[in-house]
Amino acid sequence: MASETETKAAGESAVPLPLLIVIAVVVAGATGFYYYLKYSRSGPPQAVLTAEAKSYVKHLQLSGVEMKATESYIGQAIVEIIGRITNNGDRTLSQVDINCVFYDPYGQVVLRQRVSIVRPKTGGLKPGETKDFRLPFDELPQSWNNSMPQLVIAQIIF
Question: Which CATH fold would you assign to the domain 51-157?
């Protein structure tokens, strides 16, 4: 009988190997989930407006901004935000980016996406000029409250 106990002690651990594997997978999954919740909703770091850009924001005007939902050719819902931006200042802008901030019914941010509404390849935005913009979003979180997102100027490049 002593030989069986010695054999068990030498050949087997107190905790079975499959149980150790399950514990390791659960710990790894919980750690991954924690980091997903912590970092996924905040998105990439957002650029801070330069002092020059901050002082120029007052010259930009968004107008006619509205949201509509359409269906893509594959049957997927696409939410579009359309509107116009006017440059009431005296400088030509090569790029203007905005942050679109989507909320859930409880006022928590569920998505923050930065998009360009003025680009160099479309000619920028001259003083006194107004341009239309269209922002399609095809993958919004289900927890979104279906309200117009908050639109915040994120970057101005002169």
Answer: Immunoglobulin-like (2.60.40)
